Design the sequence.
């Protein structure tokens, strides 16, 4: 039996998500609590609100995918008021996401899930694979907002490019290597 060609993409995205979140939280840890909590006009206000929303969205979707775990009722919920606790919860959830993606079978990937929407009351059924694309796209979208906030506050932030992850880890690389991608990106 052959494996679906899309499963490796989802397992890569789960590992990339974990890598990017570690880099983002590492940069966030260097920011003062005042700057971390300041409303900077982002969709969820502050870096604190944005990072909490990333966790909230992932908690909601993982509960939908697996039927397990908490699912906050509001997209703007603050599930952790302390950065250290938020970071720990993020690490724990990222490990759970990696394990879930590793366990996906071809049958699950071509299947559907039923769930209730958060923003407007509706019961929906959708194919799993396109929902997984949304799941990872949503992370990238809001992580990009958080990256902008870190750059605004600190003047620099680590690269979160998928290509950098691939080069650092060798995922999908056929030939070549090297380069130092550890230096933060600085605002011009």
Sequence:
């Amino acid at each position: 039996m052959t494996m679906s060609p899309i499963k490796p993409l989802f397992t890569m995205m789960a590992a990339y998500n974990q890598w990017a979140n570690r880099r983002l939280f590492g940069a966030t840890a260097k920011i003062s609590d005042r700057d971390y909590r300041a409303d900077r006009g982002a969709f969820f206000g502050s870096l604190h609100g944005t990072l909490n929303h990333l966790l909230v969205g992932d908690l909601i979707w993982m509960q939908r995918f697996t039927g397990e775990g908490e699912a906050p009722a509001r997209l703007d919920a603050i599930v952790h008021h302390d950065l250290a606790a938020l970071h720990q919860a993020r690490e724990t959830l990222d490990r759970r996401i990696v394990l879930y993606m590793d366990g996906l079978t071809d049958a699950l990937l071509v299947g559907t899930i039923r769930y209730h929407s958060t923003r407007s009351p509706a019961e929906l059924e959708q194919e799993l694979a396109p929902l997984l694309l949304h799941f990872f796209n949503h992370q990238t979208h809001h992580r990009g907002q958080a990256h902008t906030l870190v750059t605004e506050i600190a003047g620099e932030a680590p690269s979160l490019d998928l290509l950098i992850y691939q080069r650092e880890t060798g995922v999908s690389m056929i030939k070549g290597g090297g380069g130092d991608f550890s230096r933060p990106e600085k605002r011009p």
Summary: The helical segments are 7-28, 33-37, 47-66, 83-103, 106-109, 128-154, 162-169. Residues 17-172 form a domain with the Four Helix Bundle (Hemerythrin (Met), subunit A) fold (CATH 1.20.120.450). The two ends are 51 Å apart (CA to CA). The mean pLDDT is 93.
